[in-house]
Each structure stands twice: as C-alpha cells, then as structure tokens.
Amino acid sequence: MTTEQLRAFLAVVEEGSFRGAATRVFKTQSTVSAAVRSLEDAFGFRLFSREGYRPVLTVEGRAFYRQAKRVLGQVQELEALGHRLARGEAPTLGLSLSAMCAGPLWLDTVQRFCGRHPRMRLNISTQHLSGVLEPLVTEKVDLALGPHVGLDDRFEFVEIGAIGMVTVAAPGFLEAAGERVIPQSELRNRPHVLISDSGSRAPFDHINVIAGSERWYVGDYQVKKALLVAGLGWARIPEHMVEAELADGRLLALEIENFSSRSRVPIYMIRLRDQPLSELAQAFWHAMIEGDRAGLSAR
C-alpha cells in the first residue's frame, strides 16, 4: 500500500468517478483504476461496488475510507513539517486551553516565554470539557491547560493556579436575587446556560447542574455572558469574566440551596505521560510549573 494508491482511492470517493479522480490527481483513468485494484487485491475485499453507473463504496470501503482520510491527513502534516524543518522555520508549540482559563493563568507566562523564544509559532485551540484533553490524546497539541476533568493515569499534571467560579443572573431574572438563598425548585424551569462539550470522541456529562432543569447550550463564554446580561438565563461562570458586570450591577451573584454557587477550580498543566515533548514544549512546561508558578498562584 502506498500513499499514491490512497490518494487515488480518496479521489474516486470524493469526485464520484474514476474519470474525475484522474483529473484531480493528474493521472490517467487507467492508472487510478489500477491503484484502487491494487488496494483491493492487497486486502482481499472490494472497496467499491461497480454495478451502477458510478462507483459506490462497500461497507468495507466506507470503513477503509474513514481511516485512509485520517492517515493521509497525517502524512500531509508530516510532509509540511519536514519542509518547514528543511527551511529552518520556527518551531511550533501547540496548546489546548480550557475556555474557562482564558486570560489570567497563562497570558503573562506566554508573553515572557515569547520574549525568550521570539521565532516560536504558537497554535492554541480553546476547548471545553472532554475537548480539552482530546487534542492531547490524539497528539494534535503538545500540552493542555484545564481543570481536573477526565484526568487519569495516562496524564501527568501539575496544578498551576485556580479559577474562581460564581453563579450569576441579571437583576429582575429572579425576585430579590442576590438578597436570599434561592431554592432549586425556583430555577428548575428557568434556562441554565451551559457551554457545550467541544469533544467529539467521548463527551463528558456536565457537573454543577440541577436535576431536571431546563438547559440551554452555547459554544463559548462570550455568548453565555451575553445571554446572562440580557436576563435570559442563569449560570456559573468564571468570576474574572464578569467582574465589571458584577461591579456595576448588570449581573448579581446568586446563592442557591444545595448547589456550588461559588467555588475555586484548580487548573492544571497537562501532558501525556508516555509522549515525549519537543524541546520547546519541555521549556514551556517548566516555565509554567516552576519559574512562573508562584506568580500565577498568587492571583
């Protein structure tokens, strides 16, 4: 099996014909047909049903296509990396960042680290719940920053600070909000605004929710905050994101019975235990957990 054969196979699937595939990969139609036939002969099953006018994937062909697409994507990434290294381009640091961490636990460190590594390329993905660890497990990033959600013995992790969480709603959303303990029953039919799990492999259940309550899901904290300020729901949210709104009265802190209305959530620097780190990622790991930890924890 060769990458050229895989490219021909993917082209047939995505173009819908051997003729279209030949045009896409700049080969003759007979060359594309031979490449697909070689794959079928190598594994002993048909990738396409050829009974109709257009080739149709078999059950085995559909499974093979999904994996082949992933493999070719990785090959292309490797080729691109090889070209960058050959040209002496700057090394890349990939981070998966919990959306709740945006700002206070890492920006100062990144600023100092960039000063020491001015040619560094930084790729950051912002995730939530299982999405924080998923890019790490699939080796799409070097390191992750997030809470203790889904961590197990596959990971090495060190606490670098904590995020304050507060439960809020707009004035008028509840009678005498901020002046009394709110019964859970009073919130059960009011929208609890939650951020969707950004992972695709094994999503986690939300915690700190009221059983049987109405739930609205959004993709990020910016939309969540806008809904809260508009008086359309209630939620827990990182306190640093709503400091101004709490100060000027656009949002009120709530105390809800038998609910974690306020809390401090530890945040961890996370790596895969068995994945070797690049020299750059190793340096950033140490910058976060050693040289900068004292300043971070004091926040």
Structure description:
- With 299 residues, the chain is an alpha/beta fold.
- The chain folds into two domains: 3-86, Orthogonal Bundle (Arc Repressor Mutant, subunit A), CATH 1.10.10.10; 92-299, D-Maltodextrin-Binding Protein, domain 2 (3-Layer(aba) Sandwich), CATH 3.40.190.290.
- It is built from eleven helices and 13 strands.
- It has helices at 3-15, 18-25, 29-43, 59-86, 107-116, 130-137, 184-187, 221-229, 243-248, 279-291, 293-297; strands spanning 48-49, 56-57, 92-98, 121-127, 143-146, 155-169, 181-182, 192-195, 215-218, 235-238, 252-253, 255-256, 262-272.
- The strands form four sheets. Strands 3, 4, 5, 6, 10, 11 and 13 form a seven-stranded mixed beta sheet that branches. A two-stranded antiparallel sheet has the order 1-2.
- Strand 3, helix 5 and strand 4 form a beta-alpha-beta unit.
- Helix 1 (3-15) crosses helix 2, helix 1 (3-15) crosses helix 3 (29-43) and helix 2 (18-25) packs across helix 3.
- The longest helix has 28 residues, at 59-86.
- The chain is globular, with a radius of gyration of 25 Å.
- The model is unreliable at 292-299 (pLDDT under 50).
Write the layout of secondary structure elements.
Elements (H helix, E strand, L loop, with lengths): L2 H13 L2 H8 L3 H15 L4 E2 L6 E2 L1 H28 L5 E7 L8 H10 L4 E7 L2 H8 L5 E4 L8 E15 L11 E2 L1 H4 L4 E4 L19 E4 L2 H9 L5 E4 L4 H6 L3 E2 L1 E2 L5 E11 L6 H13 L1 H5 L2
